[in-house]
Fold these 2 entries.
Entry 1:
Amino acid sequence: MRPVHVAGIGKTAFGALAGRSLKDLAVEAITACLSDAGKSPSDAEAVYVGNFDAPSFTGQNHLAPFIAGAAGIHGVPATRFEAACASGGSALFHAMQAVASGSYNNVLVCGVEKMTSQTTARVAQILAGAGDAELESNIGATFPAIFAMIARRHMHQYGTTREHLAAVAVKNHYNASLNPHAHLKKVITLEQALAGKPVAEPFTIYDCSLVSDGAAAVWISSEPAAIRIAACAQASGPVSLADKTDITTLEATRLAAAKAYKQAGIAASDIDIAEVHDCFTIAELIAMEDLGFIEKGGSGPWVASGATGINGSLPVNTSGGLKAKGHPIGATGVAQICDLILQMRGEAGPRQVAKANTALAQNLGGSGATSVVTILQRN
Amino acid sequence: MRPVHVAGIGKTAFGALAGRSLKDLAVEAITACLSDAGKSPSDAEAVYVGNFDAPSFTGQNHLAPFIAGAAGIHGVPATRFEAACASGGSALFHAMQAVASGSYNNVLVCGVEKMTSQTTARVAQILAGAGDAELESNIGATFPAIFAMIARRHMHQYGTTREHLAAVAVKNHYNASLNPHAHLKKVITLEQALAGKPVAEPFTIYDCSLVSDGAAAVWISSEPAAIRIAACAQASGPVSLADKTDITTLEATRLAAAKAYKQAGIAASDIDIAEVHDCFTIAELIAMEDLGFIEKGGSGPWVASGATGINGSLPVNTSGGLKAKGHPIGATGVAQICDLILQMRGEAGPRQVAKANTALAQNLGGSGATSVVTILQRN
């Protein structure tokens, strides 16, 4: 396996982007990425598209050649990768593997989702497909309910409080207010987060990520560049909550993290900055534990202490995270890489952290059936 | 790139399988494949699932870990690949590439689709997503209409007749009658094919492939086995018919075929047997030309002469093809490999051909936006 680099990034703003089509968003991100990488469409030897469910959201399937063609990339293999909310991360994982093993020298990865043209009820139904339709969603266990159960168990087992959960929301809303590409730029207080409209006990609306439109792209290359993908690992776990032995930890994240740390030859303590999959506030807390940043059960007080703020010892989701930057599903795993690279380049503006030499992204699918962990390093 | 082998195959019967779920079908195919390969679930280092649109057909998304887990495969990367009707071929292409380049030694590929639980109108709508939704399907240009236009043009340009098209249907219906796993086992005459219920001029119902349920699996390995994947290539072309300069040829198939022949170091004339993507009768004729088996425009008389029958000079779709074996979309590209291997092993029963040392599969997505060409050789 040879070194693999991220030679360019491109991203649209995230939000409820009425009048912007899925194709339009993907082409904007790809065009920005090509320009940033100094490449032309004909340089792409393959296209990896991360997308959860464009057919249901927009009616358009066969998405990879559809997007590639619109961006001027013709002839080469163009494939859509689906791994629920980890679709973007999975596309990246396969692209990284193909370049690392010598199958290609230059490939394009694009994550995209257009969600806001559907009604809220239909969006909930589409999202529920990422769980076990028969055992969970068909009987009402949609993701807010599933992650609420996970949160309740974490509270019961480790003394995690609603204030700990709300601290994640307050931090990520603040961070997003500094990100011009974020969906929500509304700073909130702990009191506001706690007093939000109830969704599923113990969650208020402020514990839940957003339904967004958006796209992100990265150029993966074997050619030397400033930032290297030191590791990228994908792992699986049970789709249904009922099949897990302990719902306060996600096996797929632990497996992927262990592989990624080994591949990069580093430990969790070497990470300077992370973007993690905060689809719900509890998911960010559990990610802190599963990624080895803090001991099992200790994430609540640690995050509430400010340790993961922009000026903390380990800044997490400085982009605003899925919570406030937004969560156009297929785009999320690719956008995490773009946001980390802005920090690594020192181009993150008012949310810039002091040190970003080694960065980690964690992208989760469903309630943990897929997890992708990527580690970036400055050369 | 090192040699890659198909060490095992497994397949369900294809048909309108009421009472059989998508998960159930996938697990049956995987279990048969594991048994044929002499492997256990824990031997799989990754799982590649080819599926077009389970979310729309069944409500279940996040399909790869869902299926892998049900088959007893845990922890490893499990990803769904979507490339319209070439989803199975695309999963195979990426699996082959990962094993050839040394990323894995043993992986499982499973193609699956459960289509018949939806109404015919809804199925047509879901399938239309593989074209350009905005420019084609939303204004009524569904696939029968699109391929009918292609057929009309081929007839105009090369003198191809309705009898030539019908000859494909007659052959494939006969072949399927010899295949216990086929969806339709009804032998038809040329007169019956021509007098079928009209669908889209010049097509009758006998020019169109079936809506089926089914699954197929193959075990891909770097370990020595009797049958080697000599080449596997995926290529892209325009999604919309309006973007093609000549609609009587599919650029993606020509590109993929050229790459595959080069990779295998052989010519079209070296192929003993083929399974090609006869979603409509015209697609089989055009495939003959794009794969280099016959000169451009000459496919109609050639196929009608019996050259591609079981006892012809180049047997094509001895399984019965999509036309009569059935077309559970995601399964098709994987099932083609299973059917060729039955012939290569001499296990094809009454449809066994005399010589099957070098075999070719062609799996098409949409009206040619994706094509995957695979070449198998006996060691």
Entry 2:
Amino acid sequence: MHFADRLFRAVDQKETPLCVGFDPHLALIPAHLLDSIDHHLDPLERYARAVETFCMQILDAVADLVPAVKPQFAFFERLGSPGMRVLARLCAEAVSRDLIVIGDAKRGDIGSTAEAYSEAYLAPPRAGFPEPDIRVDAITLNPYMGFEAIQPFLCPYRKTGVFVLVKTSNPSGCQIQDIPTHEGTVADSVADLVVNWGSGREGDCGYSDVGAVVGAPYPEAAIGLRRRMPKTIFLIPGYGFQGGGSRDAMITLDQRGHGGIVNSSRAILFAFQKGIHAHFGPERYAEAARAATIDAITDLRNGFRALHP
Amino acid sequence: MHFADRLFRAVDQKETPLCVGFDPHLALIPAHLLDSIDHHLDPLERYARAVETFCMQILDAVADLVPAVKPQFAFFERLGSPGMRVLARLCAEAVSRDLIVIGDAKRGDIGSTAEAYSEAYLAPPRAGFPEPDIRVDAITLNPYMGFEAIQPFLCPYRKTGVFVLVKTSNPSGCQIQDIPTHEGTVADSVADLVVNWGSGREGDCGYSDVGAVVGAPYPEAAIGLRRRMPKTIFLIPGYGFQGGGSRDAMITLDQRGHGGIVNSSRAILFAFQKGIHAHFGPERYAEAARAATIDAITDLRNGFRALHP
């Protein structure tokens, strides 16, 4: 089954396109988790175990609510070898709960290097080689090196998905993405490439397995990019913490609520720290995360209804 | 001391700009290394130990010849948590031999995510947080998200280097890098940004700590980019295996032999497999790598002499 079909089947089941981003900032992990771990352990191992407990508890708290999770690799890599072990476990536990796992790795390399990345995270290993320990359903990729940086991640046997950076939600993204070209901007040209790369890779839902990262804070740009990429799944960051509203986040979705997945990371993971769920406090961080997830789902539904009354 | 000064001091000491790339393709690791490891171990751990021995032996064989090494992260990530442990050891052993370590990670993310990547590999950790296990002197980065994806890797205290992808050596790189803009191409615009980002970060050698990846198979493009980036260190891939000649590889270096670092990976690591050093055979892979390194140094010297007679 195509990645796109699996994703939107999950979206239909959970009745929301919300994806919970796992960005476990070390500085924000509740202190009691760290204190509860043997102080004689190697410090990286100690932090990794605290992050592991944190992620597993939050996964338990949100797994029945959302169709997908998106671990941000950087925070696991920060903890070196023990961190990668935790990332592997998080991905495996998410899969065992029928969640779609989107690896936010933003890799971008070519040839045998891209193949190594693909085998590390998505593709089945070549016969005779060891099974990798981290498995995701889709991965975020950087298009700067062209299709050679994308193609190895599209596996014909195990249908995987990719999300190619097109228009990102950060201010300095404009330095390259908004450079004027004969076709519009660099982001427009990348959008056309994404359509081209996805052509022939559409699932029954009509969307292709080659998705695009399109930041939520720029609704006008997002609408323009939707016109260029009518059959592309948008991974929409910047909802919640980065300031995008629910209407903006939902604006590129179709009438069935398909076509995009909306990510929220920090506003859910660290809901215990500030805002309306801070009353839970650090000890009850997982309950705070669940409450924030329910709020985000409601907010996105309201945004969708405002667009499709 | 600036990264640029440390790099060219090492280049002067070894009298070559050659960098050995550590790209340990699993399929190319000598079989006897794998056979010698306990077959009851976890398969990833077994492969990781074979890769560890392979990398350590080659490091021993080339450390006195070259100024720098460039581990390609993908091949270590392919082995998950055990692979990251091997990467950490390779980097540490290289540093202990006074080699400059360039992490070929091609990361590109922003904000706290970029900070997590930076702390994972380059920057000193924030006070109270655990020391990461992988340490490099410089890292390759992708510019698609703008300066926010670069800035966190430039540490004011521990002077680190970055190499920003500008013009890559792969065929499909043109799909984005060669898009025409008002300034020339996207690669030209990125080159101008790299100059801007490096401004004020020059060492005594005149070059800045913000380098650029400029592929060797395109000498005309490289000369044009050198004009745009006169004070930028070029990391030059594509020499050796990817078909670039020594003259092309050296064409952007200045008369002192500064301004660039030329990478060769597979032609050195797997010299035992084919070509004029295949007679060493898989058992003597490290000797083959040393012989291939000496050849590459001579070849680059000849290329340099042809340019500066």
